[in-house]
Amino acid sequence: MSGTFTPRPGSAPLGRMIAAQASMEARLMIRNGEQLLLAVVIPVIVLIGGVRGAEHVGLDLSDRPVDVLTPGVLALAVMSTAFTSLAIATGFERRYGVIKRLGTSPLPRSGLLVGKVGALLLVELLQVVVIGAVGLVLGWDPELTATSLLAAAVTLLLGTAAFASLGLFVAGVLRAEATLAAANLIYLLLLAGGAVVLPVSEYGGADIVLDHLPSGALGEAMRRALMEGQLATAHLMVLVVWAALGTVLTARTFRWE
What we know:
Shape: globular
Order of helices and strands: HHHHHHHHHH
């Protein structure tokens, strides 16, 4: 009947709820000063400082420093967001009961996790734009072909899956303060010695171990994609194994409150 409103009670479609959750989480992450520091500021400082420092100390790399370091810093940015930022944010959401309250909403728990992953991908897109722009200003000359872009995208997705599953595992078993300390400590250790920014060949005899860490595998796969235009199958398989391990551990141990 014309002029009559018909009530349509019920929840929105699942896809729309997940998109809204992802958008909200991405905005909260970008507005948070600490998260922005981890996501953008530190990677950009590492890139500029690394390139300038390598030129002054004469660091012996296989290629130009900016071409080696920029893919590594992109990998570092993925680790910053998917592991450290996600773990800290989720840990404090558990502490303040946010996740428990979201559990009473029409959005199912699986949808909540998918929304978190969607937010990570949105933030990582911003990181790629910013870090890529800084790299180009510094003289970065990446391998840009359909194969290299596909390889970089696959590496980013698998790296996100591996580190996000591990970040949720840490946030799900530790208290918020312990999660904050552990996530930052692991981040600093992997930044300094995890072969994410520098190639594993720069670490001497430790290359076998570093090749099997998620940080080393992510860094090597990103460098192979953007320097040689190749898909690093072996390193991507390492990321798949870490993602599967992190998912199983999270599913068995995560506490929602």
